[in-house]
Design a protein that fits this description.
By secondary structure, the chain is an all-alpha fold. The protein has one domain. The protein has four helices and no strands. Helix 1 crosses helix 3 and helix 2 packs across helix 4. It is globular.
Length: 102
């Protein structure tokens, strides 16, 4: 199994766990997926593609009366997954913001 296949499997499992109850434990799984991706070989684009694939699979399972709710939950979960990348990005650029302007 490739790293991307493993990431997809873990993302799918975590999102499907988060979707029905929106628990903090399931959200923590999303954060952990993002942290592992950020310290491993996955890129930000890999995570976005995996998210899109998993969301498409969920929506393709059939008509849902709560499609807007699923999309909202997907956005919340993706935000948590990407939070590690956001913190890393901010950490790289904060020192520049503190430098005195010439």
């Amino acid at each position: 199994m490739s790293d991307l296949e493993g990431l997809t499997r873990d993302y799918r499992t975590g999102f499907l766990r988060y979707l029905p109850h929106r628990s903090e434990a399931a959200m923590a799984t999303g954060y952990e997926i993002g942290r592992r991706a950020a310290t491993g070989s996955a890129s930000l684009l890999d995570l976005v593609l995996v998210h899109h694939q998993v969301l498409g699979e969920v929506l393709a399972q059939g008509p849902r009366p709560d499609t807007n709710d699923v999309v909202k939950a997907a956005g919340e979960y993706l935000s948590e997954v990407l939070s590690t990348f956001d913190m890393s990005h901010r950490g790289l650029h904060e020192p520049e913001a503190r430098q005195p302007k010439p």
